Amino acid sequence: MSASPSAKMPIISWACPLLAVAFYVAASSVGFKDALPPGVTGIALALLLMPVLFGAIFAAVYHAETIAHWSGEPYGTLILTVAVTVIEVALIASVMMSDANGSPALARDTVFAVVMTVCNGLAGLCILVGGLKYREQSFRVPGAAAYVTVLIVMATLTLVLPNYTRETPGPSYSDSQLIFVAVVTVVLYAAFLYIQTVRHRDYFIIQAGDQGWHETHSMRQLALSGLLLLVALVAIIMLSKKFAVVVELGREAAGAPAPVTGLIVAILILLPEGIAAVQAARKDALQKSLNLALGSALATIGMTFPAVTIVALALHTPLTLGLDPSDTVLLALTLLVSTMTFATGRTNILYGFVHLVIFATFLFLTFQP
Q1: Which of 147, 152, 178, 287 suits a disulfide with 294, CB 3.0-4.6 Å?
Q2: Ranges for the Sodium/calcium exchanger membrane region domain (predicted)?
Q3: Closest of 225, 198, 200, 193 to residue 70, by C-alpha
């Protein structure tokens, strides 16, 4: 489902957000809050939750693309990136505030899973899909270099350095260190956004592929899409906590490791960007795909980490940040390979396969550490 200026708004684009809100109200009224109701009712709610939640996500993609067609690049990709990051922050914060499901490592596991999924799974899939159809695709090297450079610094500060500080034992920062890293992360992300949207917009746009991006939409349709996008995102935020309950029950029943919860949450919140990025690659707009994919990884750290820091400090909740040695190796490998992939300005299917192999390794080690 993609936005088109000439087509009428599909029924599911407005029905799914409203259905998601109605489902939340109905499920909460029968006792589905922090735990599933017992018996057949709980099973039925768990089964219905999946299509309702995914319907809201697809509707959010449609409306975000409608607005993006009007705003143009790189602002269009930022709309979806920021929207998905809001979902991520709300979900992590809600789980952190829950006594039943709270985990000091959830933020780390989710952020790491987002980075690995974006830089390897999503980027690899986009490169492979585009390479199979067009043999080679091009993008702007300065823009890709900016993404990777900022990502290396952010990932090191938030996921690696906590293992090597001496003020507090273990993979954690002290309160003062946490505040400092959160502040510099926000400053760095703000500087990147200034470069992307004001000072060097041309780094993130390929003019030949930008033709036709500014489509004609009526202001009424844009206003309606903006409202429905807000409704869809609110519904996703509300249902994500219930989704986390179902995921946690399934993980415990399957005996899977705790990081699996972070992985599933990451995949859920990345669906809107993932769909839009793959669609762009199929249309030979790899630059847009990279803006979505790599931009979401930066937004995850640049916006999610400071927000989670505020929640942790306000609630006096411990925050585990440093990665295990095996995960640190995978992160370093990902950043190294990404540097090589985005250094030439052109990609082919080999780069896609390489990133997908790293992602498959990450998935395997998540379930079999």
Answers
A1: 147
A2: 43-197, 227-367
A3: 225
Please compute, for residue 355, the number of CA atoms within 13 A of its CA located in the half-sphere on the CB side.
Answer: 29
100: which residues sit within 8 A by CB, 6+ positions away? 34, 35
**How far apart (Å, rounded) are the C-alpha atoms in residues 271 and 258?**
21
Q: What angle do CA 126, 132, 137 make, to 5 degrees?
A: 60
Tokens standing for 114?
């987002």
Alpha-helical (H) ranges within the chain are 11-29, 39-71, 75-96, 106-116, 123-134, 141-155, 175-194, 219-254, 259-282, 286-299, 305-315, 325-341, 349-367
DSSP 119: I
Q: Confidence class of residue 213 from pLDDT cuts 50, 70 and 90?
A: very low
**Contacts for 300 with CB less than 8 Å, ≥ 6 apart:** 85, 88, 111, 114, 115, 118
Question: 92 in helix, strand or coil?
Answer: helix
Output the CA angle 159-161-166, nearest 5 degrees. Answer: 135
User: Of 57-66, 121-130, 164-173, which range is least confident?
Assistant: 57-66
Residue 170 Rama label (left phi>0; alpha psi -120 to 50; beta): left
Least confident of 91-95, 97-101, 301-305, 348-352: 97-101
How many whole angstroms separate alpha carbon 57 and alpha carbon 116?
21
Which residue shows structure tokens 């080690």? 365
- Cα angle value 32/107/298 (rounded, 5°): 120
Q: For residues 114 and 63, what is the distance between their CA atoms, to the nearest angstrom?
A: 23
For residue 114, pLDDT over 50 is answered with yes
Most confident option among 105-119, 309-323, 354-368: 354-368
- Verify cis geometry, omega within 30 degrees of 0, for the bond prior to 259: no
C-alpha span between 211 and 100 (Å, rounded): 51
